[in-house]
Amino acid sequence: MVVGLTHYLVVGAILFTLGLYSVLTRRNAISILMGVELILNGANINYVAFSHFSSGNVEGQIYAVFVIMLAAAEAAIGLAIVLAIFQIFHTIDVAAAETLKE
Questions:
Q1: What is the pLDDT of residue 42?
Q2: Distance from C-alpha of 43 to C-alpha of 75, rounded to nearest angstrom
Q3: Could you read off the pLDDT of 49-65 as tens digits, one per residue?
Q4: Which of 52, 64, 69, 74 is placed for a possible disulfide with 44 were both Cys, Cβ 3.0 to 4.6 Å?
Q5: 17-56 burial code (b ≥16 CB/10 A, e <16)
Q6: Cβ-contact 2, 14 below 8 angstroms
Q7: Architecture of domain 5-101
Q8: Closest CA to 30 of 73, 92, 76
Q9: Low-confidence ranges of the chain (pLDDT < 50)
Q10: What is the pLDDT at residue 102?
């Protein structure tokens, strides 16, 4: 069996939809951040697959590295926000942050 572009695209789409489902249905801030990471990893798989199968250049890998650096920064800032919310409300439920508007 030869693994082709469609196999990579299916795995990327599955990761993306699982991440999107996690972001839309979870109330826990940590689960939402993990969903965002899944979305970014699904995009990374597509970048690398298209780069490999279209021209063989390393442009897709370079984009993937930038997305990984963006995901690391997002995780650090996101966790800092979650810790700040936890110190105030003693919960990491996203609905508790709605009272910050007042």
A1: 94
A2: 17
A3: 999 888 878 888 888 89
A4: 64
A5: ebbeebbeeeeebeebbbbbbbbbbbbbbbbbbbbeeeee
A6: no
A7: Orthogonal Bundle (1.10)
A8: 92
A9: none
A10: 58
Task: Answer yes or no: are the C-beta atoms of 53 and 5 closer than 8 Å.
Answer: yes
- What is the per-residue pLDDT for 58? 84
pTM for this entry: 0.83
Phi, psi for residue 93 in degrees, rounded to 5: -70, 130
For the chain, give percent helix, strand, coil, nearest 5: 85, 0, 15
Give the SS3 label for residue 77: helix
> Bridge partners of 28?
93
Q: How many CA atoms lie within 13 A of 13 on its CB side?
A: 6
Question: Residue ranges per domain, the chain?
Answer: 5-101
Pair of tokens at residue 58: 């390393």
